[in-house]
Design brief:
Length: about 190
């Protein structure tokens, strides 16, 4: 057993790996096969489904379900009540199971705002930011700021979270360059 905290109201299935320093708060369920990194925080009523992989330093706010097929890299932020999907055409009568799930990847540092929805089968680039309430129906480029329904690119953000101007230089000192796949940090 590692050096992590699980509140007594939460349930952790067998065959789960939880990294040191991670905190799992009230009414959470971590399902079998889940792997959670170090120094993560899971707020109230979070569900981590079977075989989900979560990196280090991830923060998941209240009322988030991370379904099978979702992969979360390091330092990702999932805002309160944001939603993941894993099946593009679900039917209660005709479940597809594992084979029908579409993979969704949140790359290092991505932020998803409160009540946003991430439609499955997409990738959120490094250090991108999805605005509260947005519905992501396509891939999001690294450092891109997206908002709306459906989510559209409205600007660029620094790794520190500040919105970038035309110079692509942040007040924190980081500088960026435009590439086809999005911004890259210089």
């Amino acid at each position: 057993m590692g050096d992590f905290f699980v509140h007594e109201s939460s349930y952790v299935d067998d065959n789960v790996i939880i990294g040191d320093g991670t905190k799992i708060w009230y009414f959470c369920h971590i399902q079998s096969g889940a792997v959670i990194g170090k120094n993560c925080s899971f707020g109230q009523n979070v569900n981590v489904s079977n075989d989900v992989k979560i990196g280090d330093g991830v923060k998941v706010q209240n009322n988030v379900s991370i379904y099978e097929g979702v992969e979360i890299e390091d330092y990702v932020f999932c805002g309160p009540s944001m939603v993941f999907t894993n099946d593009l055409t679900p039917r209660a009568k005709y479940p597809k199971g594992h084979a029908g799930y579409k993979k969704t990847i949140l790359h290092t540092g991505a932020t998803v705002g409160a009540n946003a929805t991430i439609v499955c089968g997409h990738e959120l680039g490094e250090w991108c930011m999805v605005a509260a309430g947005a519905v992501v129906t396509d891939n999001v480029k690294p450092y891109s700021l997206v908002a709306g329904v459906p989510a559209r690119h409205i600007g660029w953000v620094c790794e520190c979270g500040n919105r970038l101007g035309d110079s692509l230089e942040c007040s924190c000192g980081r500088k960026y360059k435009m590439m086809n796949e999005g911004l890259i940090q210089l």
